[in-house]
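**User:** Once you have settled down, spend some time on the protein underneath, comparing sequence with C-alpha cells, and judge whether sequence predicts the C-alpha cells.
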Amino acid sequence: MGIDINPHSVGLASFTAKLNAFGSYRILKADALALFGVLGTLNLVSWNLPFIFMPDECKDTAIDGYGGNLVIGLCLDFIETLSGLLNDEGTTCTALDPKRP
C-alpha cells in the first residue's frame, strides 16, 4: 500500500507499480498521519520527510511550506505517530536530505 498527500506522487507511484507489474497494490491519496488507526498497523513505513528549514514568509510559494515552524512540525508529528502505525514486527525507513532545495 502506498499513501501520499501529493496527487503527483500518487500518480507516479501508480505508474511505477504498473510498469513493474506489481500483482497487488493499493495507492491512496491521503494524509497518512490522519489515517492513524483507520488502516490498522503496517509492516513497513517508508517516508521521505520534507525536512527543509524554511522561514514563514516562504510558506505560500514552497511545496513543503505547511509543515509547522521551519517545517519541523510535520517531522515531529510523523515521529510521534510512527509507533502507532507499525505492528510489533514492523520497521521504518526514513529518508532525510537537509540539502534538498
About this structure: The chain has two helices and four strands. The longest helix spans residues 72-85. The two ends are 28 Å apart (CA to CA).
